[in-house]
Each structure stands twice: as structure tokens, then as C-alpha cells.
């Protein structure tokens, strides 16, 4: 990290301003070479300076340059931000001149990576930066801010402190048994602390599963036979004529997607090709694609026709989705009922039709109940939002449960210590106290340039 990096930090396109960010030991010197009016090496830190960017004495743009000196910066390095006029040509030209004068083009996420490596933020806070950028709802934004402020990290650190207290006491008891004033770690004391740690782990994991919903949304798959009204339901839910609707069976032959914000949670809704036995090659591809999406869905909305009896194709779909959260939407209630409901057992059923918009609000409420929206709203929104973080936390929980089992079997304390250290190490990996270079590269590779 001895070199100086630069990148465009704003979206590239036509706009009022663009920002080129420069960070590193030579950041101020490099920009000073191309800045006319002031000597940036002599200005105070955290000041904005008016002038021009020049190249071979040719004025390129009129700019404002922010100078921020280490260590009180995002990367804990000297940082300079050039605020130039928006526009692709101007922005790229200014960046080109910065690079020509000694900076290197930053890799995706390299500014945030430097902030982490320099101790400015930990891994959870780093991940929250990208979550904040990508947040699509107010709920997601609040959760990202909580992580960015360290509220989630504090929970992990507290668990590590509890574990290290047990570990250190065990080691002192083993190495210095003659010291009577040292607290002796008994099985009873350890059992109480381990139970507290386990309960906190369970709470964090449960909140994190909710957090995943806040961050990524709910993947909703609309399934059913042809011409039962799937596309009409999609259009009504997203309030947009996204899918083509006709009376001809098999109109939808590929997936059609749309999204809505339901009380702060994004529903990513997918309308699928009608499922039936068919010899049409193109329609068959669409049917297979629909069936393959079942295992990826968080929720299935199976649409049945109120004016027809349940058919073999319907029964096959019901069987395929039995192990996935699902709601059965009985559509076309404006027509005479012929559906034989005795073939649907113990299911979440909503009746409605898209002619009068009946049942759609009930459908939304059913989704909110099924995914505990009320509980999500009342939570403190301090959670792990990344799949690898959650998987590591589950590994710790599994390890803690094994420790509980060892305590019940009266395994010697010094043997239990190994598992305690393992849990402590894994928690350290989550916040970046311990990490591999490969993991760090993988995490920051998903960041945008300039961040």
C-alpha cells in the first residue's frame, strides 16, 4: 500500500459534478502538480480550494479540490478529492492527468480495503459501506448505518471478550494453581457463561436471517397452469403492465420480473411460463425454466382458477412446492366456483380476482405475516447481512453447543479450552481480527470503483 491510488467516485455520466478521489502518500503532491492557483502542500487539512486543473499549461477544468491529511481520513492516508464539472469527457480527462502524474488506477473497493487494512473500519463496517450504497429501502438504509456505526461489531466483540475471559482464567488455573486469589473456573460457572453466549448467538443469527431479507428482499415466484391469471397478478402487484396478458394459453413463455417495496421490504416477483405438458419446444423450455426456479424461491404464489376443477398439473405443482413457503391464490372469483377445495389441505389460501383487485391486499398481508414483517420493524436492525458472516456465526453456535455437550459429559476443562479458542478465532474472522488475504480480496472485489 505504498503507492497512491485514484478513481472516479461518482457515477459516470452527465451531471453537475464528478469527483475524482486520490489516496496515498503522494496524493497531495500529485494533485498539486496539476492544480493552478494554490500550493496544496501548504493549505490546511479538510479545506476546499478553488482553482483549475491544468495539463501542459492548458486549462482542463475549473474545480474545487478538497485536501484531507492523514490520519483523519476515510483511508487514514492523505486523501484529495477533485470536484470537477460533470460529464464523461471532462471526468475521464482529469483522471487521465492524475494517473499520468504518478497515481495508479484503484481496483474496485480499494479505498475501503485500505480503510480496513489501516484499522479505520472492521470487516462488518466495510461490508456495511456497500450495503448502504446498494440499499433500496429506508429499512435497509437504517440497518446499514447501524452496521457502519459499529453496533453489530460491538456484539461480536462482547462475545469474544466473554470467551477470552474464560480462556485466560483456565490457563491461569492450569499454569499457576498455587495462586489462591485467582478465580477458579468451575464447570458450573462455565456452564452459565456458555449458556449466555449461546443465547446471544441464536439471537444474532435469527436477526441476521431477517437482515438478509432486508438487504436482498424476498424472491417471490408466481406459478400455475397457463391462463390462470399469473401475469395479471404480477401486473397488479407492481402496478405496471409488465407482462403481456391475453386469453390465449401459453402467452408467457419466459420469465417476467418486477419489484415492489412492501413496508420497507423489497419483493422481487417473477412471473413464469404456465406449467403444463406440452410438445411445443419453446414453451417446454419456459416450463422447465419455471420448475428450476422453484428451489431458488423464498416464496411461491401458486395461482389456481376458481372456475375450474383442480387438475393433475395443479396437483403436481402442489406436491413440488410442499417444502417451500407458499400461498395459494384462488383467482377469478368473479366467475362461478368449480374448484374442488378438498384437494388443498392445510394451506395458506387467498381468494381474489384481478378484475376488481379483490384479494391483493390480503395477499400482501399474508406475505407480511409469513415473513414476520412486524418483528423485523421492531428489531434493532443490528445484524450480519453477508452470507459468509452468517455461516461463520452458525459454525460458532455449533461449536458452543458441542462445548455444552462436553460440559455435560464432564470432559476436562483444559480439553474444552481448545473449542473455546476455536470459537474466539471464528468470531475474530467475522470482524476481521483474523483473516486471509484471499478472503479480503474476495470481499472487496464486489465494491464499485472509487469506493
SSE run: EEHEEEEHEHHHHHEHEEHEHEEHHHHH
The largest beta-sheet arranges its strands as 3-4-5-6-2-1-7
Helicity range: 40-55%
Name the assembly state. single chain
Q: Termini distance?
A: 16 Å
Give the number of domains. 3
Approximate shape? flat
Regions with little confidence, pLDDT below 50 for 5+ residues:
243-253
The CATH first-level class of the largest domain comes to: Alpha Beta
Mean pLDDT equals: 81
The main β sheet shows up as:
7 strands, mixed
Radius of gyration: 29 Å
The CATH topology label of the largest domain is Rossmann fold
Count of helical stretches: 15
SSE map:
Layout: E1 5-8, E2 17-23, H1 27-34, E3 35-36, E4 47-55, E5 58-68, E6 79-85, H2 88-100, E7 104-105, H3 110-117, H4 123-134, H5 138-148, H6 151-175, H7 187-216, E8 218-223, H8 230-238, E9 256-262, E10 265-271, H9 281-293, E11 299-305, H10 312-320, E12 326-331, E13 349-351, H11 360-370, H12 373-378, H13 387-408, H14 413-431, H15 437-444
Parallel strand pairs: 1-7, 8-10, 8-11, 11-12, 12-13
Antiparallel strand pairs: 1-2, 2-6, 3-4, 4-5, 5-6, 9-10
Helix pairs in contact: 4-5, 6-7, 6-14, 7-13, 13-14
Structure notes:
This protein is α/β, with parallel strands linked by helices and about 450 residues long. The protein has 3 domains: about 5-120, Probable tRNA modification gtpase trme, domain 1 (Gyrase A, domain 2), CATH 3.30.1360; about 140-215 and about 380-430, Up-down Bundle (Four Helix Bundle (Hemerythrin (Met), subunit A)); about 225-295 and about 300-370, Rossmann fold (3-Layer(aba) Sandwich), CATH 3.40.50.300. The chain has 15 helices and 13 strands. It has helices at about 25-35, 90-100, 110-115, 125-135, 140-150, 150-175, 185-215, 230-240, 280-295, 310-320, 360-370, 375-380, 385-410, 415-430, 435-445; strands at about 5-10, 15-25, 35, 45-55, 60-70, 80-85, 105, 220-225, 255-260, 265-270, 300-305, 325-330, 350. A 7-stranded mixed sheet has the order 3-4-5-6-2-1-7. A 6-stranded mixed sheet has the order 9-10-8-11-12-13, sandwiched between helices. β1 (about 5-10) and β2 (about 15-25) form a beta hairpin. The two termini are about 15 Å apart. About 35% of the residues are buried.
